[in-house]
Design brief:
12 helices; mainly alpha; 257 residues
């Protein structure tokens, strides 16, 4: 803002240069912070990555999940096999260890693209459609080995009703309620984003909100995905859902009158 004021007072205001200068000053703090942190990591560990968590995630979750699906072995056995391909972290510099983790993870992703796609789509389904009651029950300290949605795919109808309607009706009701609420939100989001986007807000707003949602979906889907991973973008979906349902009821009551 200071740059824009000084530029306008100088009497040489040029919209193109002003936009470039404003953008540069807007990005400068982020560039300094991220660049400084990468330099810090390089000096400390010998690896200039911004964060080594992704390297660990590739070798500890992605590679074992791909190997487990391809070979049909248990996930823990696959994880031990992958760990045998990594050096001991106490015997090598941290930077070299995490570079090796990154290399092993990407090696399995490139070698088995079909298994990678299946794992990614399954994780995306969990993020988008998982009711999330296992996370809530774990937070409340209620032990449960399975969930209603998982048993719906694994058990016969009779066994499912006996297990959940006969022994755990409260958990089943909470799961169905959360699933219906989620579907209600998605239906409103579809209407709000695709049918109402030409009206109230500029296109840039939709690009920003929609891009944020897609960004979180791309990062969240994977072998260790949970329903709670949609928490960062669920408020944005709720905004669109509110717009969609508000427009629906407004038109409905207009017809009734």
């Amino acid at each position: 803002r200071f740059v824009r004021v000084r530029w306008s007072r100088s009497g040489r205001r040029r919209p193109g240069k002003e936009a470039v200068l404003s953008l540069a000053f807007f990005l400068l703090p982020g560039l300094v912070l991220t660049g400084g942190w990468r330099l810090h990591n390089y000096l400390v560990s010998g690896d200039g990555s911004f964060c080594q968590v992704e390297d660990y995630y590739l070798s500890c979750y992605w590679a074992p999940a791909i190997l487990s699906l391809h070979e049909g072995m248990p996930r823990e056995q696959a994880r031990q096999q992958i760990a045998g391909q990594l050096p001991e972290i106490s015997r090598v510099p941290p930077g070299e260890y995490y570079r090796r983790c990154r290399s092993v993870g990407w090696e399995y992703i490139r070698r088995y693209p079909r298994e990678t796609a299946r794992i990614y789509l399954a994780g995306l389904g969990k993020v988008l459609l998982g009711p999330g009651e296992p996370d809530l029950l774990e937070f409340l300290g209620i032990p449960t080995r399975t969930s209603p949605m998982g048993d719906l795919l694994r058990l016969s109808p009779r066994a499912f009703l006996h297990e959940w309607l006969g022994h755990k009706p409260g958990i089943l009701a909470a799961s169905l309620f959360s699933l219906l609420l989620l579907l209600f939100c998605y239906v409103g989001w579809v209407r709000g984003f695709f049918l109402e986007r030409s009206g109230k807000f500029p296109a840039a707003v939709h690009w920003l909100l929609g891009g944020t949602i897609v960004y979180f979906l791309l990062l969240s889907a994977g072998p260790n995905s949970y329903a709670r991973f949609r928490v960062p973008f669920l408020p944005l979906l709720a905004v669109y859902a509110g717009l969609g349902w508000e427009a629906f009821f407004r038109r409905y009551w207009a017809r009734e009158k």
